[in-house]
Amino acid sequence: MPFLATGVVFLVLSSFLASTVEMVEALTIVLAVGVSRQWRSTLIGVAVALVALAAVVAALGPALALIPINALRVLVGALLLIFGLQWLRKAILRASGRVALHNEEAIYQRELAASLSADAVAPAGMDWYAFTLAFKGVFLEGLEVVFIVLTFGANAAADGTGSVQLAAVGAIIAAVLVTAVGAFVREPLSRVPENKMKFVVGAMLTTFGIFWGSEGVGVLWPGQDIAILAILAFVLVTALIGVRVLRERSQVPVSMHAAATTAK
Amino acid sequence: MTFISRFFGFWYDFIVGDDWFVAVGVVVLLAVAGALANANLHTTAWLVMPVGVVLVLAISLRRATTQ
Tell me, what's the ipTM? Predict the structure, then answer.
């Protein structure tokens, strides 16, 4: 009996921890996209991904293990990497002064004037970019959580120490906890200036794209999921160096021009 | 503009975005990393992606600032 209880605790805890890692990855993308793009479309993307995930689980059940997860990782990873690099590129160009920063105050005043002049406020249009990013992040990570629950649960059932249902309990606790954390940090994150947020989001999408895409094509990362932190640090540092280099280069012609004008 | 050209135009803008070089660079890097991983050159394979991505970004930034 104590062996069984230990087995159950171990199964729920393992499922909880493994699911938490995957869910935090999904939450990072959802928060980043929601804060920097549009919450409505992001949350619709999350909801549609959860419905699609439930439909896939209901339709396939244990046969889910046959889905080629690596092919999905390559596709999602490549798209995240392309989107992330485009965001990072724009954010670097803006931060270095090569492209004008978004004037957030002017945008706010324009939106405010438009909303005051309209009797009925039309709902904001759908941001398909935010929707797609949120959908892909939640769907892929959700699928990985389903694999964790199925494999952990099936192995424990074979040993006689647990079941798929018990593994699902660990994943559900992780989902509740991660969602609560997401709701808690949403508000403070929304106060970060737009370009800074886009800079970080671009770096995060690039990081996840590098990690998932290369895992999908068969690359083995040292430290597995821990490698994500090292990739993020590398991407952020090189992006900051990019900003600095572009700033210095843009100052050279200006100062030379100023010197030439003064000489005249 | 026909429906088909608008359809493909939307997907091109959506996926490829401002610089086609980034999209092509990502596909090439994944192909190279995959080939190295399949040849059991795992250390080289995981190094290719971050280093290659930074190179792609640097070239794309250079293209943007010299245009």
Answer: 0.91
